[in-house]
Amino acid sequence: MQTKKIEIDVEVLQYEELTAPDRELIDVAKEATKSSFAPYSRFNVGAAVRLENGVILHGSNQENSAYPSGLCAERVTIFYANAHYPDIAPRTLAIATFAGGDFLSDPITPCGACRQVLIDCEKRYGKDIAVLLFGKKYIYKVKCIRDLMPLAFDEESLV
Ligand code: THU
After folding, report:
1. Is 74 in the pocket of ligand 1 (CB under 6 A)?
2. From the alpha carbon of 40, which atom of ligand 1 is closest?
3. Please, are residues 21 and 47 in contact by the beta-carbon 8 Å criterion?
4. Ligand 1: residue whose CA is nearest its atom 8
5. Is the pLDDT confidence value at 158 over 90?
6. pLDDT, tens digit, for every residue of 19-42?
7. Ligand 1 centre from 41 Cα, in Å?
8. What is the DSSP letter of 37?
9. What is the pLDDT at residue 1?
10. Pocket test for ligand 1, best of 41, 42, 44, 98 (most atoms within 8 A of CB)
């Protein structure tokens, strides 16, 4: 038997250590939590994406009384970007969460369904999408969605 080890690099950073563009993206994601519609979970997630051309777009989680019909902030944001700028690659995505009266101390990471959508987006444009996950104590930076989703389904397996 062989064992395959899969390792990823996660940078653990303080806000002050980020580049100015990354700080700006986090600021937009934090601001976007205000447009979250989360009356059921009270978990307000904001996301911001920077496109290849420098444009920044944002979105937030939108819940629904039929719970599974709601959508996470990441997918709202990435689908919005794809709909409005179908020819421009998304390059960096920032996520922040406001819950219980404050931003979370530790970052949250995208759910599996969002990772699946994001990895397809990465393949569609052939460009890495870096991820910035904001927490008050520290920020995670991952260089691409592939790293967040090892052994992902590959559409090339479709026959
Ligand atoms: N949520 C997001 O928007 N992004 C995540 O990465 C995790 C969870 C939303 C879905 C739901 O509206 C609420 O947070 C609680 O799960």
Report:
1. yes
2. 12
3. no
4. 72
5. no
6. 999 999 999 999 999 999 999 999
7. 8
8. B
9. 94
10. 41
The residue from 31, 63, 74, 122 that is catalytic is 74
pTM, rounded to two decimals = 0.96
Measure 44 CA to ligand 1 centroid, in angstroms: 8
> Which two three-digit tokens encode residue 44?
């307000």
Q: What integer pLDDT is reported at residue 115 of this predicted model?
A: 98
Confidence of residue 101 (pLDDT cuts 50, 70, 90): very high
Instruction: State the Rg of the chain over Cα.
Output: 16
C-beta of 35 in contact with ligand 1 (< 6 A)? no
Q: How far apart are CA 87 and CA 130, in angstroms?
A: 18
- Cβ(99) – ligand 1 distance below 6 Å: no
Looking at residue 85, its pLDDT comes to 98
Instruction: Write out the two tokens for 78.
Output: 């990435």
Listed in sequence order, the DSSP H helices in the chain are 20-32, 73-84, 112-125, 145-148
Q: What percent of the chain is helix, strand and coil (3-state, nearest 5)?
A: 35, 25, 40
Q: Under 8 Å CB-to-CB from 82, ≥6 apart: which residues?
A: 90, 121
